[in-house]
C-alpha cells in the first residue's frame, strides 16, 4: 500500500474483529515505528504498555467510556509519559544527552539550554511537562497508526477515558507519569465510513 492509500485506509476503527490477532512480528514492527519516532531533544518521554490480557482490557473498558475498541482489539497500547523524569536537573535528562557522546562542554550547554528553554515554559504551568510529553507521544502514535495501515492493520486513537481511573487500574503513580493516549490495534469488522475533512483550501494558506 502506498502512503496516501494507507492514509485513506486508516480510520478510527470502532469495532475490531474479536479474536483476530496481529502476528507477533507485525506488532513488533508497529512498536519499532514508535521507538524510531522523533522526540524533542531526543528525550523519548514515553513508555508503551502492550496490553494483551483480555481480563485487563475488560477491566479498563468501563473507564474508557465503555468503548468497544478496548475489548475487541488484538493489542491495546497505552502511551505513558515520563512527566517527572523529563524535568530539568534529573539524571534521566543528563543520561539521554550523554548517549550522544558529545564533549563535556557541549553536554553542559545542552543541559543548560534544555533547563532554560523548558524551565521558562513550565513557569506557572503545573501540567507543562505532562502536556509536552503527550504532544510527542502523539507523534509516535500517528506514525504507528499510519504504518499499521500500510500493513492492513486498523487502529483507533482514544482520549475518551478517565485518566485517574485508568492510571489506578494500571498502577501508574500520577505524580511520576501519566497516561497520554490509548491506542488499540486490530482488524476492522465494518467497512470504514467515507472521509469527512475540510478542503485543502479550507486549511491551507500559501504565503
Ligand atoms: C487524540 C485523538 C483522540 C481521539 N479519541 C477518540 C475516542 O476516544 N474514541 C473514538 O472513537 N475516536 C477517537 N478519536 C478519533 C477521531 O474521532 C477521528 O480520528 C476523527 O473523527 C476523524 O475520523 P477518521 O480518523 O476515521 O478519519 C480520536 C482521535 C484523536 C486524534
How do the helices and strands line up, and which of them pair or pack?
Elements (H helix, E strand, L loop, with lengths): L2 H7 L14 H12 L10 E6 L2 H7 L7 H5 L2 E7 L9 H8 L5 H19 L5 H23 L3 E2 L7 H8 L7 E9 L13 H4 L4
Antiparallel strand pairs: 1-2, 2-4, 3-4
Helix pairs in contact: 1-7, 2-7
This protein binds flavin mononucleotide.
Task: Explain this structure.
The chain has 207 residues and is α+β, with helices and mostly antiparallel strands. Strands 1-2-4-3 form a four-stranded antiparallel beta sheet, with helices on both faces. The chain has helices at residues 3-9, 24-35, 54-60, 68-72, 91-98, 104-122, 128-150, 163-170, 200-203; strands at 46-51, 75-81, 154-155, 178-186. The chain starts with a helix and ends with a helix. The mean pLDDT is 97. Helix 1 (3-9) crosses helix 7. The chain contains nine helices and four strands. It is globular. Flavin mononucleotide is lined by residues 11-12, 14, 67, 156-160, 195.
Number of strands: 4
Rg value: 19 Å
What's the CATH superfamily, by name? Answer: NADH Oxidase
Estimate nothing, just give the exact number of structural domains: 1
Classify the helix fraction into a percent range: 40-55%
CATH topology: NADH Oxidase
Poorly predicted parts: none
Mean pLDDT: 97
Return the structural class: alpha+beta
Physical arrangement of strands within the biggest beta sheet: 1-2-4-3
In N-to-C order, the SSE pattern is HHEHHEHHHEHEH
Strand content: 5-15%
How would a textbook summarize the main sheet? 4 strands, antiparallel
User: Termini separation (Å)?
Assistant: 33 Å
